[in-house]
Amino acid sequence: MKNAAALEKHGFNVSRIVLGCMGFGGGWNNDPLTADDLKKARAGVEAALEAGITMFDHANIYTMGKAEQVFGQVLKESPGLRDRIVLQSKCGIRFEEGPGRPHRFDFSEEHILSSVDEILTRLGIETLDILLLHRPDPLMEPEEVASAFSKLKQAGKVKGFGVSNMSPAQMRLLRSAWNEPLLVNQLELNLLKLDWVNAGVHVNQAAGLKDNFADGLLEYCRMEGVQVQSWGPLAKGLFTGKDVSDQPENVRKTAALVKHMAEERGTSLEAIVLAWLMRHPAGIQPVIGTTNPERIRACAEADHVTLTREEWYDLYITSRGVRMP
Ligand SMILES: NC(=O)c1ccc[n+]([C@@H]2O[C@H](COP(=O)([O-])OP(=O)(O)OC[C@H]3O[C@@H](n4cnc5c(N)ncnc54)[C@H](OP(=O)(O)O)[C@@H]3O)[C@@H](O)[C@H]2O)c1
């Protein structure tokens, strides 16, 4: 599978498609892991590796830590696997931890440091390749974050750092205290939620008032060499086989167009949806959230599909449901 260019520049030779691990580990509760959870994780990881996927995305909160825990078990039973893959995780979100303790974000040094220790323990590894700050904390102090990053790096616990769901201004604020590049920004980008494309198209138009995407974000990442990752790239299967009979017309038409293009090219529905994201010059890395081996293989077919400009616009315009200005 082709590599993710922006990460390659920093020495991470990883596949363009990433396996998101939010679906591993069973339910979002504190129940113990089951044999079924392990079987599912093993099958998903195996399918990904066979398809050429070498990067895996976690977060400390996924299934309350169980996604990392079960992945750690897969690593333990597969000698040599750790060295063949790149592991990314996130911290900074805290769920309610008891009465009067709100669900909140926390970029304090203490929380970042302890989160990484817990991530390493659950995964059973000594070094995490990439740590992302999950969602912007309004109380973020760049110097404090930079101090945490620097301690983690010096201790050999994390190789590189990035962010998720952040604006260019927030990234610049962090960079004012952190002298190394932010490697990644992971954002919700897909063929359903189009604000990330619309925001650029609607400059200087009233339609732009409705776009929910930070101004200049993709441009900033492209200029700074930040690897853009898409979470939710399959839009939960809306264009790749889910029943859309009760969906709005634009969704139904887009699903039909995806099917038509897939048939025409002899590829999977997932390949078309992901190839649409990957055709964008920001060099997006889709972080696929499926745990189904068959769907993982279907996603990997995107590596062989390059949409024409016309096909790309056809999908975009059909999904936005409104002609270009
Ligand atoms: N940074 C962030 O804030 C953030 C937020 C959310 C997620 N993430 C990351 O991004 C990854 C992907 O996110 P996501 O899971 O929301 O997005 P996704 O890849 O768009 O959706 C995957 C989900 O859709 C289901 N699905 C896919 N195709 C389907 C179909 N044809 N019919 C029925 N169900 C279908 C999958 O079920 P099956 O498993 O059964 O295929 C899975 O539950 C996560 O694993 C996580 O690593 C990051």
From TrEMBL:
Carries keyword Repressor? no
NADP-dependent oxidoreductase domain boundaries: 16-313
Which keywords, in A-to-Z order, does the entry hold?
Oxidoreductase
**Keyword Cell membrane (UniProt):** no
Query: What EC number(s) are associated with this protein in UniProt?
Result: 1.-.-.-
Coiled-coil region list? none
This entry's Gene Ontology molecular function terms read: oxidoreductase activity
For the protein in the UniProt heading, the enzyme class is: oxidoreductase
What protein am I looking at?
Aldo/keto reductase family oxidoreductase
Annotated source species: Paenibacillus chartarius
